[in-house]
Design a protein that fits this description.
The chain has three helices and 22 strands. It has a four-stranded mixed sheet. A four-stranded mixed sheet has the order 14-13-16-15. The chain is mainly β.
Length: about 325
């Protein structure tokens, strides 16, 4: 049968009331269509459209059935409040009341979407968003705070509570940013998550000091780390980028960039060494010995102090 979308109205007479819930649930459970979300210019979910190349299957997202004279129904309603304040119905589940007194809210199978946000669950109140994070009553909402299917089983309908409403909760998406070495394996140096639209904190990459195998160079040559480039081709050319200004809106990779230098051009700097009052050199407390490799040029005098030896572990030293 062809796809039917939109609203269907049945003009039945009062003497023959129809159960909207039975009609809705029949099509919900027996009709499967492939759809994709439609967003407005602000990135808010505007609705869904039938799309054979859609991202997911959704049951009954496009057809609403209304009758002029309906039997009383218990309604579980799912609402997505857009950033504009407009409410969009994500799903409506209706069940015909019985005399059991145990009928409860029903969990939807529909997963709403919002551009650059992640859906984390449903709440009984509409959240507000501050810096991309959801708040209800000035308290940040996490996935653990959202209503579960088990909790819905305890939310009962009665003669005065015939509708139970839930609101979609999102949190802004975090993108994965990787810092890679420019070696044959493109070894991952560091990985972080950055909130959509934010820049990378300098503390996450300013303290990174990768090294590159210099065994293919002349004896007196080394690879000196320059910084990070936003493409492998740039890194291979020894170029670097000012990544502090990059607003992260997708997963990103940055590559360590190096240049060839003489071993005599630079000595080991303060990020690696600490000069003791007696003139001995040892690794700085913040330095990771496992990352200290290759050809190291040490100073014989620093700040007018003659270097007397090198302490590798604090308990042993080598004198000059």
């Amino acid at each position: 049968m062809p796809y039917i979308t939109g609203d269907v109205f049945i003009n039945n007479d009062a003497a023959n009331p129809i159960s909207e819930s039975k009609l809705q649930n029949y099509y919900k459970n027996n009709t499967t269509v492939k759809v994709s979300p439609v967003y407005d210019t602000s990135g808010n979910l505007h609705g869904y459209q039938v799309d054979e190349n859609g991202e997911y299957f959704s049951t009954f997202p496009l057809l609403n059935i209304f009758v002029a004279n309906a039997k009383i129904a218990y309604v579980t309603k799912y609402i997505d409040v857009q950033t504009t304040g407009i409410e969009t119905e994500v799903d409506v589940i209706k069940i015909e009341p019985d005399e059991s007194g145990t009928q409860h809210a029903q969990m939807t199978s529909v997963i709403p979407t919002r551009m650059n946000y992640d859906f984390i669950g449903w709440a009984t109140e509409a959240p507000e968003y501050r810096d991309g994070k959801p708040y209800i009553n000035d308290k940040i909402v996490t996935e653990d705070d959202c209503v579960t299917a088990e909790q819905m089983n305890e939310m009962f309908f009665n003669s005065t509570k015939t509708t139970i409403t839930f609101y979609a909760v999102y949190t802004i998406h975090n993108w994965t940013v990787k810092f890679l070495n420019r070696d044959t394996d493109l070894t991952v140096i560091h990985t972080i998550n950055v909130q959509h639209g934010k820049t990378i904190p300098e503390s996450e990459y300013k303290s990174l000091y990768p090294s590159l195998d210099d065994s293919d160079l002349e004896l007196t040559e080394v690879y000196a780390f320059l910084g990070f480039a936003n493409s492998l081709d740039k890194a291979k050319e020894g170029k670097v980028d000012d990544i502090s200004k990059d607003e992260i809106t997708s997963d990103r990779e940055y590559y360590a960039s190096y240049t060839k230098k003489s071993v005599y051009d630079n000595v080991l700097d303060a990020k690696w060494i600490y000069i003791e009052p007696n003139g001995k050199i040892r690794l700085a407390d913040s330095a990771d010995p496992s990352k200290l490799n290759g050809k190291i040029t040490l100073p014989s005098m620093v700040n007018g102090i003659t270097v007397a030896g090198i302490s590798s572990t604090g308990s042993s030293s080598v004198a000059f």
